[in-house]
Q: What sequence folds into this?
C-alpha cells in the first residue's frame, strides 16, 4: 500500500544484466534478482526461443543446423522451481501400414516435446536432452540431405516403425533411466499423412 506500482525499468535492467548468456544453470539468478530489485515475494519468468543445433547428414556428413524450440520456466516464491522444455521435430513411420502393405509404409512428421525438472543439484545441457528425445522417433530429420542421406533416413524409418504411443513410451523409459531428472512431462504429435487428423499421446511422471 506504500507503493504506487512496480518499477518497470528494473525489469529491463535485470534482463540487460544477463543479455550475453542465460543458461539453465543460472536462470534462477534472474528470479532472485527480480525479487530483490522489485522488493517482491514472488518472481516468475518464462523464456521461449529458437535454438540451433549443429547436425551433420548421416551419410555424407554435410553440415547443417536444426532449429528446435526451447522454453525455460522458473518460479521463486519461498522455494525455487525450474522447468526446461524442448520441442524436437522428427519422423514416425506407421507400424500398421508397414504390416498390411505389400510394399512401402506411410510416414509423417512428428513433434516430440519434453518438459523436465531436475534433481537437486543437477542440471543438463539443452543438447543432452535433445539427444535423448531425438532417439525415440522412427528416424531423425536434418536440414541438409543429399541423395545417399535421403536413402538412409527413408530406410531407417522403415526399419523402426512407431505409433505415437510407442514414441511417448520410449521417451518415458529414457527419462526414467536418467537420474538427473526428477519430473517429466512428455508428448508427441504425429501430423498424419493419410488422415485428416493428428495422433497425440502424453505421459507425466513425478519420480520424487
A:
Amino acid at each position: 500500500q506504500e507503493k504506487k506500482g512496480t518499477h518497470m525499468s528494473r525489469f529491463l535492467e535485470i534482463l540487460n544484466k544477463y543479455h550475453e548468456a542465460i543458461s539453465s544453470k543460472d536462470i534462477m539468478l534472474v528470479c532472485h534478482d527480480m525479487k530483490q530489485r522489485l522488493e517482491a515475494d514472488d518472481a516468475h519468468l518464462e523464456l521461449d526461443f529458437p535454438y540451433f543445433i549443429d547436425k551433420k547428414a548421416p551419410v555424407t556428413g554435410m553440415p547443417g543446423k536444426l532449429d528446435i524450440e526451447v522454453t525455460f520456466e522458473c518460479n521463486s516464491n519461498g522455494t525455487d522451481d525450474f522447468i526446461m522444455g524442448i520441442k524436437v521435430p522428427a519422423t514416425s513411420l506407421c507400424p500398421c501400414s508397414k504390416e498390411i502393405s505389400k510394399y512401402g509404409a506411410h510416414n509423417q512428421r512428428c513433434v516430440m516435446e519434453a518438459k523436465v525438472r531436475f534433481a537437486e543439484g543437477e542440471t543438463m545441457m539443452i543438447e543432452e536432452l535433445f539427444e535423448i528425445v531425438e532417439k525415440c522417433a522412427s528416424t531423425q530429420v536434418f536440414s541438409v540431405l543429399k541423395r545417399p542421406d535421403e536413402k538412409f533416413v527413408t530406410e531407417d524409418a522403415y526399419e523402426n516403425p512407431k505409433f505415437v504411443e510407442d514414441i511417448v513410451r520410449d521417451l518415458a523409459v529414457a527419462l526414467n533411466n536418467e537420474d538427473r531428472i526428477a519430473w517429466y512431462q512428455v508428448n508427441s504429435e504425429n501430423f498424419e499423412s493419410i488422415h485428416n487428423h493428428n495422433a497425440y499421446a502424453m505421459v507425466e511422471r513425478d519420480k520424487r
Observations:
- Residues 56 and 63 are 4 Å apart (CA to CA).
